[in-house]
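Sanity check

After download, print the first record. It should look like this:
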Amino acid sequence: MVKVGIVGGTGYTGVELLRLLALHEEAEVVAITSRAESGRRVDDLYPNLRGHYELAFSEPDVRQLAACDIVFFATPHNVAMNLVPELLQAGARVIDLSADYRIRDPQLWSRWYGEPHASPEVLRAAVYGLPEVNRSSIAGATLVACPGCYPTSVQLGLIPLLARQVVDPMHLIASSASGVSGAGRQAKVDNLLSEVADSFKAYAVTGHRHLPEIEQGLSDVAGSPVALTFVPHLLPMIRGIHSTLFARRVDTSVDLQALYEDWYADEPFVDVLPEGMYPQTRTVKGANRCQISLQVPQGRDTVVVMSTIDNLVKGASGQAIQNMNIMLGLPEDMGLKQVGLLP
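Expected structure tokens:
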């Protein structure tokens, strides 16, 4: 069995890791940390896990975590980068679900997160954990930076167009909407039911922290810089992301439906829908799957791509486990065969 440690197990990504790993055929969670809940049983805080775990939360201990085969960080930013270097030195393999190691340039990271990066030397060892792009590098990695939820939906939606140079890379637009769980489990007035229900709003229009991560990944695929206008929105629901992507077409000779179907034909967690069928957040709820469809309205020069994921699964914990499977040479879909929940 694969021994798993989780740092920061009380947030939504932490409990989602526990839910998915509970049915993983080869994984056993042996350590889960929380300074605030140390000593409390996991199934006391999360009764949905009763009968699956006998664990209690504990204080982070490098020796205990280093004895694990894989350590997940399900923490806010500026936590992993203070502990990961010591774990790597002790021989641990780490998957970080926070933003600490996603952006390769430490100065760029500091500009968006408002503080110096605590371990910039480790950034060189981090592999960006989008399997559909970096599968071979992930397999040999000691540190994987699991992509953000918005970046996953946007990148998977635009990658084929940029890789085949079908669209202008300097005129990309992403209008994305997320459920409130994307903001985390902390108490905020803006996330209260009475504040969110029956409403729909944009936020961080002048610049969202996920923008440099998205542009970095898309530039890698395009082989040149890209420029993206990214506008996130808050939906009055718990889970799910719907990204509507716009790009200016410069090559009209390519059959776009065939391009996407061929590009993702062998990807177990990307589903290109038939032409004329549009993705919905409810059909990917609870599943480690991205559903994509595309259109060229009125036959003009704007390509519209629609991409949906569950922000807590393919956008976070499910993708992290997908990375774990790749790193350990396990079947990539092990523990991730859940079907989306309907209704």
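If your output differs, re-run the checksum step. Summary of this record's structure: The first helix runs from residue 12 to 21.
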